[in-house]
Specification:
Layout: H1 4-14, E1 37-45, E2 48-60, E3 69-75, E4 92-96, E5 102-111, E6 119-124, H2 125-129, H3 144-152, E7 154-155, E8 160-163, H4 167-179, E9 184-187, E10 205-213, E11 216-227, E12 230-233, E13 242-257, E14 269-284, E15 289-293, E16 299-308, E17 314-322, H5 335-352, E18 359-369, E19 376-383, H6 388-393, H7 396-410, E20 418-429, E21 433-440, E22 444-446, E23 450-458, E24 464-472, E25 480-487, H8 522-530, E26 538-543, H9 556-562, E27 565-568, E28 574-576, E29 578-586
Parallel strand pairs: 8-9, 16-20, 21-28, 22-29
Antiparallel strand pairs: 1-2, 1-4, 2-3, 3-6, 4-5, 5-6, 5-7, 8-11, 10-11, 10-13, 10-17, 11-12, 12-15, 13-14, 14-15, 16-17, 18-19, 18-20, 21-23, 23-24, 25-26, 25-29, 26-27
Helix pairs in contact: 5-7
């Protein structure tokens, strides 16, 4: 049902030339004519707005203004060599009115796959301005009809641009996104990070950001219209998720990368990075995204700190992460689940000046929430699992960070206010690893006593050392001859293997959403988070002489004897392998 207020607003939009509030005057779709020569505005380098010619080829009307489009061909020095692509969406198009004045008719929004990228679609300005900056509290999703339309034309601002990552890590994230069916562009950090903010105006480069700070991630586009403190952009959805709480930022354009094919994987795009945060994106609608200048979105700080144990050097990445939890995570995943794994990988890469195959890392991830006295946390040690950016991104350490953020995204039992995230990583070159070679100890032991076993270990490269391990003999163990089996924890490996036996790096988890139903309370969430911790020490079992360990334990005293027990963990290195000692158990 159309309310009186909405009806009045639509009537005002239907008028020919009056201004939309303090914004530029507009031309409704029914006055746009094929054959008209117009002008578009967009940034092709830096922050200065350039203009180029637009010829209207056809007007594709519809009873639903959100489905109507204007077919145009663009030309001019600014874009002749490249055509348009991602980053150009939202570029406003203005045509001469009856009195010769310039009227906004819409904004470039979609490509149609034409070679050279010069024939594109424009979303009518009426549809763009029909998207409210204050959408309803409940997030809404794109209609079926709108989805059908957008399947035929491809929105040109979908890619996320990430700055603050090294070229190697950035390339790894791009490959991971491609495996997940998403487009990500790795861009350099903007040279304008500390510059004074330049007011957004139609044609300005802008970004919708997930994060701000040392790692900035956002979708690059162009401002289509400004009315006071309200900004419309893109001319199509970001995710079509309704109400949002993301950074509204300026952007710096390094260059327009030319690829005339215009395919999904090979298209012209703006190489650009978000810069100053200037407001909050509040609406992710069918025909545009809409934000308000001024106050920034709900957010929390995240710090990714490293200590190099070889040199003593420390470093940190400081990031502000947009927090949409209060509005129900409109896309089903949080900004943290995208940003945190990448930032942790980058922090390690910075600290080690690369990612050697042989490395040892310790990670403690803490997530502070207002509903819990103590942070949700886990700590793990990782020995190995390096070897280039893909191995680091697809390895166990980053996978654990992904698992933690997925737990947060899946939790919806009660309100959860995240107040801060800290990831503390200690890095060291080489494998802090030793392998069990042999055991020496007493020939017999009483039930219920502790025995000291001397374990002979071999380090990579052949160095030998010993450790004394105390093992408790269970009271309920049967008497007689036993094999005391000490078993360590192997070095970490990158998951997956190819048919040729080589490693196949699994990067798909970087862009995976929450797996299933989340914990039912904050207390359960804390338990689930702490369960990411893995014991990586030595375990002990008492087996019948010469027998192999079985996963299915027998019942009674024999099951007590064969049960695996955590026995010893060395703080300096991980002990791998296994060794046996024959021992007689006495009463």
């Amino acid at each position: 049902m159309i309310t009186r207020a909405v009806a009045v607003a639509l009537l005002m939009l239907a008028c020919a030339a009056p201004a939309h509030g303090a914004g530029a005057p507009i031309m409704p779709l029914d006055q746009v004519r094929a054959g008209t020569d117009c002008t578009a505005a967009s940034v092709v380098h830096g922050t200065d707005i350039s203009t180029f010619a637009v010829h209207i080829d056809d007007v594709l009307g519809s009873s639903d203004i959100r489905q109507a489009r204007i077919l145009v061909t663009v030309s001019g020095a600014a874009i002749d060599a490249t055509g348009v692509g991602p980053g150009f969406s939202g570029s406003p198009v203005s045509c001469p009115g009856p009195d010769g004045s310039s009227l906004v008719v819409g904004a470039i929004s979609e490509t149609i796959g034409a070679y050279g990228g010069r024939t594109v679609l424009v979303t009518p300005i009426q549809a763009i301005l029909g998207e409210s900056v204050d959408p309803p509290q409940a997030a809404t999703h794109m209609s079926v009809r709108a989805r059908a339309l957008l399947r035929a034309a491809r929105p040109i601002a979908e890619p996320l641009s990430i700055s603050g990552l090294s070229p190697a890590i950035g390339a790894g994230v791009v490959r991971a996104a491609r495996l997940a069916g998403r487009i990500v562009i790795s861009a350099p950090a903007s040279p304008r990070q500390a510059a004074a903010a330049i007011p957004l105006e139609p044609g300005s480069a802008m970004a919708v950001g997930l994060s701000s700070g040392d790692v900035q991630e956002g979708a690059i586009g162009t401002v289509a219209y400004v009315d006071g403190d309200t900004v419309w952009a893109f001319g199509h959805p970001l995710d079509g998720a309704g109400r949002r709480e993301l950074f509204l930022s300026e952007a710096y354009v390094f260059d327009v990368v030319n690829n005339p094919l215009g395919t999904q994987d090979a298209a012209t795009y703006k190489l650009a990075s978000p810069t100053a945060d200037v407001g909050t994106l509040r609406q992710d609608g069918i025909s545009a995204v809409v934000g308000r200048l001024g106050a920034l979105p709900r957010r929390f700080p995240a710090t990714f700190a490293t200590r190099d144990l070889d040199t003593g050097r420390t470093g940190a990445l400081h990031v502000q992460v947009a927090d949409e939890r209060a509005i129900g995570l409109p896309t089903g995943t949080s900004a943290l689940s995208t940003v945190a794994p990448e930032a942790v990988a980058q922090a390690i890469y910075n600290a080690l000046d690369g990612s050697p195959v042989h490395q040892t890392d310790e990670l403690c991830l803490k997530i502070s929430v207002r509903q819990a006295k103590r942070p949700l946390a886990f700590c793990n040690r990782y020995v190995g699992g390096g070897g280039g950016a893909d191995a680091l991104l697809g390895g166990p350490l980053v996978s654990d960070v992904v698992a933690a953020t997925q737990l947060l995204d899946a939790y919806d039992a009660t309100n959860l206010d995240i107040t801060g995230v800290s990831a503390d990583v200690r890095v060291q070159r080489g494998l802090q690893l030793a392998t069990l070679a042999s055991l020496r100890g007493p020939a017999s032991a009483r039930r219920g006593s502790d025995v000291s076993v001397s374990a002979r270990l071999i380090r990579p490269g052949g160095a030998k050392l010993t450790r004394t391990i105390r093992v408790h003999v269970p009271k309920g163990m049967p008497t007689g001859s036993r094999d005391l089996l000490l078993k360590g924890t192997s070095a970490d490996q990158v998951s997956g293997s190819g048919s040729d036996g080589g490693a196949t790096i699994d990067l798909s988890n970087l862009f995976a959403g929450p797996s299933s139903d989340g914990p039912a309370s904050v207390r359960e969430l804390g338990f689930a988070m702490s369960a990411i911790h893995r014991y990586d020490g030595v375990t002990a079992r008492f087996l019948p002489p010469g027998s192999d360990p079985q996963s299915d334990l027998p019942g009674g005293p024999e099951g007590v004897a064969q049960r695996s027990r955590q026995t010893y963990r060395d703080a300096q290195l991980r002990i791998a392998g296994s060794a046996r000692l024959r021992i007689t158990i006495r009463r």
